Amino acid sequence: MSFIKFIVSKQFIMQLVIVAVIVVGGFFALSNWLFVTTNHDQKIQVPDLSKMEFSKVETVLKELNLRYEVIDSASFNPNYPGKSVIEQSPTEGEFVKENRKIYLTLNPSKYGDVHIVDFYGKTKNEVEAQLRAVGFVIGDYSYIQDLGKDVVRKLKFKGKEINKGDKLPKKSVIDLVLGNGKR
Q1: DSSP string, 113-137
Q2: Comparing C-alpha atoms, which of 59, 46, 21 is closest to residue 101?
Q3: Cα gap 107→55, rounded to integer Å
Q4: CA 151 to chain centre
Q5: Going residue by residue through the chain (183 aa), what tens digit of pLDDT does each one get?
Q6: Is residue 136 a contact partner of residue 172, using CB atoms and an 8 Å limit?
Q7: β-strand pairing of 137-144 with 95-96
Q8: Using CA atoms, how far apart are residues 147 and 144, in angstroms rounded to an integer?
Q9: DSSP alpha helices (H): ranges in the chain?
Q10: What predicted TM-score, i.e. pTM, was given to this entire model?
Q11: Are 179 and 148 in contact (CB under 8 A)?
């Protein structure tokens, strides 16, 4: 049997028809299955969660049938309430499908604690730079009888003496006790 006779034969044409029916049927079955399982044309608008308390966020997302994942935030923002949402992804107004995960960045309840650096015997400018670099605020200066002029002898927080290694919240106001340069 020659090749041309095989191509025009009834057996070959029937096989082509069967393959075409299987391919077309499979395509329609697959597209309908994907349409149903991926919830095509379903949209949920992501709400604005910024500055919202975390307990309220949970109920809002549960009502919309959305999931969430909390991403810790190490940087405290005083413009937002403690344990409230600072950022979200996807952002508000975007459309998502049911059961989508919303990623949340929460504001810590307060500034993190920072260790007091070594200060004794260093100059006022040096200690000020070190304290500001780690996030403290410089408060008042007081002087004691000491030979070293403007040499730091003590640090105080709310009137109490603090030592190297103590922990205080970032943005705490620290007062410096300096030498007056007199014997």
Answers
A1: EEEPPP-TT-BHHHHHHHHHHTT-E
A2: 46
A3: 13
A4: 41
A5: 587 887 888 898 899 999 999 999 999 999 989 888 877 777 888 999 888 888 898 899 999 889 999 887 767 787 888 888 888 889 898 988 888 899 998 888 777 788 888 888 888 899 999 999 888 999 999 999 888 888 899 899 998 999 888 888 888 899 999 998 887
A6: yes
A7: unpaired
A8: 9
A9: 3-7, 10-37, 54-63, 124-133
A10: 0.58
A11: yes
Query: Token pair of 107, please?
Result: 């504001």
The token pair that represents 57 in the structure block: 């966020």
CB within 8 Å of 73: residues ≥ 6 apart: 86, 105, 106, 107, 108
Q: Which residue has the tokens 């920072």?
A: 114
- The CA distance from 66 to 78, in Å, is 28
Q: For residues 33 and 43, what is the distance between their CA atoms, to the nearest angstrom? A: 19
- Residue labelled with tokens 């989508």: 100
Instruction: Assess contact for 137 and 80: CB atoms under 8 A.
Output: no
